[in-house]
Amino acid sequence: MKFWTSEHVFDHPWDTVAHAAWCKYPNPMNCAVSGIDVVRQHPLVDGSLRSERIIQSHFPIPAWVTKLTGFSGTQYSYEVTEINPAKKEMTLITRNMNAGRFLRVDERLLYKPDPYNEDRTILQQEASVNVDLPAFADYCEKMFLNIYEMNAEKGRKGLEWVIDQFNSSSRSSSIAEKSSSQAFSDPALVLSSLHPAAQQPCFLS
């Protein structure tokens, strides 16, 4: 099993980053994600919003890996997201759904305000990869982590791209301004901002 961790700071307040993280796909910086479907979404007793999504991604892998395992590089993942407006925390936990016979990928992301600067947001990211292929496990785990690390960097750039779109659109700017002023302190604002996404699947072409 191989592990990877990273910490990144965005020069934007938490509410802006959290909103952008939810709306991150599609974006031109990271084309690996090809489909997203919201399975269910509901508020928790502590005021958090919990969302469950299925994410379809595609990763280029060597042909011999496909021949050996039957895995084509198309991955389906189950993601659970919780947004806690009181603590200003957004947590995403993801695990692969297919290829489980030989591959397990776990990912956790945490967005939280910088304790020293409320206009900045810290992203803590960690992942683990476990490959059950005798004689190939070490190589494959390193390969998958390298792919993951590259996509994580693209994901951060994609999030910045989404924020730029917010800033360039008068409508999105007004939403971001409203979110910033209320800082997601009202769970109803979180629900009104995010809940419409649960009403329709958003598979991407």
From TrEMBL:
InterPro entries listed in its UniProt record: PRELI/MSF1_dom, Slowmo/Ups
GO cellular component entries: mitochondrial intermembrane space
Superkingdom of origin: Eukaryota
Pfam families: PRELI
Residues of the PRELI/MSF1 domain: 1-171
Name of the protein: PRELI/MSF1 domain-containing protein
Organism in which the protein naturally occurs: Cercopithifilaria johnstoni
